[in-house]
TrEMBL record:
Short name of any one Pfam family annotated for the protein: Glyoxalase
Keyword Metal-binding attached: yes
Lineage top rank: taxon: Bacteria
PANTHER family: METHYLMALONYL-COA EPIMERASE, RING-CLEAVING DIOXYGENASE-RELATED
Gene3D superfamilies: 2,3-Dihydroxybiphenyl 1,2-Dioxygenase, domain 1 (3.10.180.10)
InterPro entries: Glyas_Bleomycin-R_OHBP_Dase, Glyas_Fos-R_dOase_dom, MMCE/EMCE_epimerase, VOC_core
Record-linked PROSITE patterns: VOC (PS51819)
The VOC domain, residue ranges: 7-138
Source species: Streptomyces glaucus
Protein name listed in UniProt: VOC family protein
Amino acid sequence: MTRMDIKLSQCFVAVDDHDQALAFYRDVLGMEVRNDVGFEGMRWVTVGSPSQPDVDIVLEPPLADPNASPADRQAVAELLAKGLLRGVIFQTDDCDATFERIRAAGGEVLQEPMDQPYGVRDCAFRDPSGNMLRFTQSRKR
């Protein structure tokens, strides 16, 4: 059997304010803006790390489905506001420096840098919409 070559292309992060999210992901995290599209009253902004040109993070409206009911939209917006939707884990060469840069820019700290038993040093923040973002650094064993 031939092995398939599958790679991550895009991931989606729900945001409730694209301008705030864009300022955070672009200006604080250093992501480049790759696309900014509006459709049917909604907006999608694609950002990504300059060092990973083939991986996109799409900042999308909560429950970006035009057929979703108002009740479902409200439920997802409430989960987002509580920070209960899944986040993104980024890899960094220097967890402590990354932490200081994001904290100095006003990032909401969830966890200061610490060594984890599973072999990484990491820290965590919330983005302006409440999503958890972790920044991990591999520890040399």
